[in-house]
Amino acid sequence: EATASALLLRAGLALLAWPVYLLSFLGIWEPFCKKVFFPFFLEKISGAHDKKSKKYKQELFRNLPDFRGPSGELRLLEIGTGSGSNFQFYPAGCKVTCTDINPNFQEGLSRNMKKNQHLHYEQFLVAAGEDLRQVPSGSVDAVVCTLVLCSVQSVSSTLREVLRVLRPGGAFYFLEHVAAEHSSWTYFWQQVCYPTWKLVFAGCCLTRELWKNLEEAKFSELKIQHISVALPWMPIEPHIVGYGVK
Protein backbone atom coordinates (compact mmCIF):
# COMPACT_ATOMS: atom_id res chain seq x y z
CA GLU A 1 0.00 0.00 0.00
CA ALA A 2 2.39 2.69 1.23
CA THR A 3 5.45 3.69 -0.81
CA ALA A 4 9.01 3.40 0.53
CA SER A 5 9.24 7.14 1.23
CA ALA A 6 5.89 7.05 3.06
CA LEU A 7 7.14 4.13 5.17
CA LEU A 8 10.35 5.99 5.99
CA LEU A 9 8.45 9.10 7.08
CA ARG A 10 6.02 6.88 8.97
CA ALA A 11 8.95 5.46 10.98
CA GLY A 12 10.21 9.01 11.63
CA LEU A 13 6.81 10.05 12.94
CA ALA A 14 6.62 6.98 15.18
CA LEU A 15 10.04 7.96 16.55
CA LEU A 16 8.78 11.45 17.38
CA ALA A 17 5.73 9.95 19.08
CA TRP A 18 7.73 7.28 20.95
CA PRO A 19 6.47 8.36 24.40
CA VAL A 20 2.90 7.56 23.28
CA TYR A 21 3.99 4.19 21.89
CA LEU A 22 5.78 3.44 25.17
CA LEU A 23 2.73 4.41 27.25
CA SER A 24 0.59 2.28 24.96
CA PHE A 25 2.94 -0.67 25.40
CA LEU A 26 2.69 -0.22 29.19
CA GLY A 27 -1.12 -0.12 28.98
CA ILE A 28 -1.29 3.49 30.21
CA TRP A 29 -2.12 5.42 27.02
CA GLU A 30 -5.51 3.90 26.11
CA PRO A 31 -7.25 4.64 29.46
CA PHE A 32 -5.65 8.11 29.60
CA CYS A 33 -6.64 8.81 26.00
CA LYS A 34 -10.23 7.66 26.58
CA LYS A 35 -10.73 9.57 29.85
CA VAL A 36 -8.67 12.74 29.45
CA PHE A 37 -6.91 13.38 26.16
CA PHE A 38 -9.53 12.41 23.58
CA PRO A 39 -12.52 14.24 25.15
CA PHE A 40 -10.31 17.35 25.59
CA PHE A 41 -8.84 17.16 22.09
CA LEU A 42 -12.17 16.34 20.45
CA GLU A 43 -13.82 19.35 22.02
CA LYS A 44 -11.05 21.64 20.67
CA ILE A 45 -10.98 20.09 17.22
CA SER A 46 -14.74 19.80 16.88
CA GLY A 47 -15.02 23.53 17.59
CA ALA A 48 -12.79 24.22 14.57
CA HIS A 49 -14.43 21.49 12.50
CA ASP A 50 -17.93 22.77 13.33
CA LYS A 51 -17.07 26.24 12.03
CA LYS A 52 -15.86 24.77 8.74
CA SER A 53 -18.66 22.21 8.36
CA LYS A 54 -21.57 24.29 9.69
CA LYS A 55 -23.00 25.18 6.27
CA TYR A 56 -22.83 21.52 5.19
CA LYS A 57 -24.57 20.37 8.38
CA GLN A 58 -27.31 23.00 8.08
CA GLU A 59 -27.92 21.84 4.51
CA LEU A 60 -27.71 18.15 5.49
CA PHE A 61 -30.19 18.29 8.38
CA ARG A 62 -32.63 20.66 6.70
CA ASN A 63 -34.97 17.84 5.62
CA LEU A 64 -34.94 15.98 8.99
CA PRO A 65 -38.58 16.98 9.70
CA ASP A 66 -39.63 15.12 6.51
CA PHE A 67 -38.82 11.84 8.27
CA ARG A 68 -41.22 12.32 11.18
CA GLY A 69 -43.05 9.11 12.05
CA PRO A 70 -46.78 8.52 11.57
CA SER A 71 -47.38 10.02 15.06
CA GLY A 72 -45.86 13.32 13.92
CA GLU A 73 -42.89 12.87 16.29
CA LEU A 74 -39.28 12.67 15.16
CA ARG A 75 -37.35 10.01 17.09
CA LEU A 76 -33.64 10.43 16.43
CA LEU A 77 -30.71 8.26 17.50
CA GLU A 78 -27.18 9.63 17.36
CA ILE A 79 -24.21 7.26 17.20
CA GLY A 80 -21.07 8.66 18.81
CA THR A 81 -22.72 11.76 20.27
CA GLY A 82 -19.51 12.91 21.96
CA SER A 83 -20.19 16.31 23.50
CA GLY A 84 -23.32 16.89 21.42
CA SER A 85 -22.15 19.40 18.82
CA ASN A 86 -24.96 18.32 16.44
CA PHE A 87 -27.82 19.18 18.82
CA GLN A 88 -28.10 22.72 17.43
CA PHE A 89 -29.12 21.34 14.01
CA TYR A 90 -32.02 19.15 15.18
CA PRO A 91 -35.61 20.42 14.83
CA ALA A 92 -37.57 21.54 17.89
CA GLY A 93 -39.40 18.81 19.79
CA CYS A 94 -37.16 16.09 18.36
CA LYS A 95 -36.76 13.10 20.73
CA VAL A 96 -33.05 12.29 20.96
CA THR A 97 -31.36 9.09 22.09
CA CYS A 98 -27.60 9.55 22.49
CA THR A 99 -25.06 6.74 22.25
CA ASP A 100 -21.30 6.77 22.63
CA ILE A 101 -18.73 4.07 23.34
CA ASN A 102 -16.86 6.57 25.55
CA PRO A 103 -18.77 7.86 28.62
CA ASN A 104 -16.23 10.62 29.37
CA PHE A 105 -17.85 13.53 27.54
CA GLN A 106 -20.22 14.62 30.34
CA GLU A 107 -18.88 18.15 30.68
CA GLY A 108 -19.28 19.19 27.05
CA LEU A 109 -22.48 17.20 26.79
CA SER A 110 -24.28 18.95 29.64
CA ARG A 111 -23.13 22.31 28.26
CA ASN A 112 -24.63 21.53 24.85
CA MET A 113 -27.83 20.18 26.40
CA LYS A 114 -28.33 23.43 28.32
CA LYS A 115 -27.82 25.38 25.08
CA ASN A 116 -30.30 23.23 23.18
CA GLN A 117 -33.42 22.99 25.29
CA HIS A 118 -35.60 22.77 22.17
CA LEU A 119 -34.95 18.99 22.19
CA HIS A 120 -36.26 16.13 24.36
CA TYR A 121 -33.35 14.00 25.56
CA GLU A 122 -34.74 10.48 25.93
CA GLN A 123 -31.75 8.38 27.00
CA PHE A 124 -27.97 8.07 27.00
CA LEU A 125 -26.52 4.67 26.18
CA VAL A 126 -22.89 3.63 26.47
CA ALA A 127 -22.75 1.51 23.33
CA ALA A 128 -20.61 0.85 20.26
CA GLY A 129 -22.06 1.54 16.82
CA GLU A 130 -21.74 -2.16 16.01
CA ASP A 131 -23.86 -3.18 19.00
CA LEU A 132 -27.02 -1.16 19.60
CA ARG A 133 -28.91 -4.07 21.16
CA GLN A 134 -30.42 -1.70 23.76
CA VAL A 135 -32.36 -0.03 20.91
CA PRO A 136 -35.39 -1.97 19.58
CA SER A 137 -35.55 -2.78 15.85
CA GLY A 138 -37.49 -0.32 13.71
CA SER A 139 -37.86 2.12 16.62
CA VAL A 140 -36.30 5.35 15.26
CA ASP A 141 -37.07 7.71 12.36
CA ALA A 142 -33.52 8.98 11.86
CA VAL A 143 -29.99 7.93 12.79
CA VAL A 144 -27.15 10.48 12.75
CA CYS A 145 -23.43 9.73 12.65
CA THR A 146 -20.76 12.41 12.13
CA LEU A 147 -16.99 11.75 12.30
CA VAL A 148 -17.60 8.34 13.87
CA LEU A 149 -17.34 5.73 11.09
CA CYS A 150 -13.59 6.44 10.91
CA SER A 151 -13.10 4.79 14.30
CA VAL A 152 -15.71 2.03 14.63
CA GLN A 153 -14.29 -1.51 14.67
CA SER A 154 -16.48 -2.56 11.75
CA VAL A 155 -18.21 -0.17 9.35
CA SER A 156 -20.43 -2.86 7.80
CA SER A 157 -21.68 -4.12 11.20
CA THR A 158 -22.41 -0.53 12.24
CA LEU A 159 -24.44 0.08 9.07
CA ARG A 160 -26.31 -3.19 9.64
CA GLU A 161 -27.28 -1.94 13.11
CA VAL A 162 -28.32 1.43 11.63
CA LEU A 163 -30.66 -0.32 9.20
CA ARG A 164 -32.02 -2.55 11.96
CA VAL A 165 -32.99 0.28 14.35
CA LEU A 166 -34.47 2.50 11.59
CA ARG A 167 -38.13 2.11 10.74
CA PRO A 168 -38.86 1.45 7.03
CA GLY A 169 -38.71 4.86 5.31
CA GLY A 170 -36.40 6.26 8.02
CA ALA A 171 -33.10 7.96 7.16
CA PHE A 172 -29.42 7.67 8.09
CA TYR A 173 -27.46 10.96 8.04
CA PHE A 174 -23.67 11.05 7.83
CA LEU A 175 -20.73 13.44 7.53
CA GLU A 176 -17.37 11.67 7.62
CA HIS A 177 -13.75 12.22 6.64
CA VAL A 178 -12.48 9.69 4.11
CA ALA A 179 -9.41 8.58 2.15
CA ALA A 180 -8.11 11.10 -0.36
CA GLU A 181 -7.62 10.45 -4.07
CA HIS A 182 -4.79 7.86 -4.25
CA SER A 183 -2.57 9.95 -6.50
CA SER A 184 -2.79 13.03 -4.23
CA TRP A 185 -0.36 14.46 -1.68
CA THR A 186 -3.10 14.30 0.94
CA TYR A 187 -3.30 10.54 0.48
CA PHE A 188 0.51 10.31 0.77
CA TRP A 189 0.36 12.14 4.14
CA GLN A 190 -2.60 10.01 5.24
CA GLN A 191 -0.36 6.97 4.61
CA VAL A 192 2.50 8.53 6.57
CA CYS A 193 0.36 9.48 9.57
CA TYR A 194 -1.85 6.39 9.62
CA PRO A 195 -0.44 4.20 12.46
CA THR A 196 0.55 7.05 14.80
CA TRP A 197 -2.70 8.93 14.16
CA LYS A 198 -4.74 5.80 14.86
CA LEU A 199 -2.93 5.24 18.16
CA VAL A 200 -3.07 8.87 19.33
CA PHE A 201 -6.67 9.55 18.28
CA ALA A 202 -8.52 6.57 19.73
CA GLY A 203 -8.61 4.29 16.69
CA CYS A 204 -9.36 6.91 14.02
CA CYS A 205 -8.50 5.50 10.55
CA LEU A 206 -7.46 8.03 7.91
CA THR A 207 -7.82 5.94 4.77
CA ARG A 208 -11.31 4.44 4.89
CA GLU A 209 -13.27 4.67 1.63
CA LEU A 210 -16.58 4.92 3.45
CA TRP A 211 -18.64 5.72 0.36
CA LYS A 212 -18.02 2.10 -0.74
CA ASN A 213 -19.44 0.72 2.53
CA LEU A 214 -22.50 2.97 2.16
CA GLU A 215 -23.03 1.85 -1.43
CA GLU A 216 -22.81 -1.80 -0.31
CA ALA A 217 -25.30 -1.33 2.55
CA LYS A 218 -28.93 -1.95 1.64
CA PHE A 219 -30.34 1.59 1.45
CA SER A 220 -33.28 2.05 -0.92
CA GLU A 221 -32.03 5.54 -1.78
CA LEU A 222 -28.57 7.05 -1.14
CA LYS A 223 -27.34 10.61 -1.61
CA ILE A 224 -23.57 11.15 -1.22
CA GLN A 225 -21.65 14.33 -1.88
CA HIS A 226 -17.82 14.52 -1.79
CA ILE A 227 -16.71 17.75 -0.12
CA SER A 228 -13.57 19.31 1.31
CA VAL A 229 -13.30 20.47 4.94
CA ALA A 230 -9.77 21.76 5.45
CA LEU A 231 -8.28 22.07 8.93
CA PRO A 232 -4.70 23.33 9.28
CA TRP A 233 -2.12 20.53 9.54
CA MET A 234 -4.78 17.82 9.54
CA PRO A 235 -4.74 15.05 6.90
CA ILE A 236 -8.55 14.80 6.98
CA GLU A 237 -9.62 17.22 4.26
CA PRO A 238 -11.73 14.95 2.00
CA HIS A 239 -15.20 14.29 3.46
CA ILE A 240 -18.47 12.74 2.36
CA VAL A 241 -21.85 14.05 3.42
CA GLY A 242 -25.37 12.83 2.73
CA TYR A 243 -28.14 10.47 3.78
CA GLY A 244 -29.56 7.06 2.98
CA VAL A 245 -33.19 5.95 3.25
CA LYS A 246 -34.14 2.50 4.54
UniProtKB/TrEMBL annotation:
Residues 77-174 form the Methyltransferase type domain. It comes from the Eukaryota. It holds the Pfam family Methyltransf_11. GO terms for molecular function: S-adenosylmethionine-dependent methyltransferase activity. Keywords: Membrane, Transmembrane, Transmembrane helix. SUPFAM superfamilies: S-adenosyl-L-methionine-dependent methyltransferases (SSF53335). The chain crosses the membrane at residues 7-29. InterPro entries: Methyltransf_11 (IPR013216), SAM-dependent_MTases_sf (IPR029063), Thiol_S-MT (IPR052356). The keyword Ribosomal protein does not apply. This is MET7A protein. It comes from Calcarius ornatus (Chestnut-collared longspur). The gene is Mettl7a.
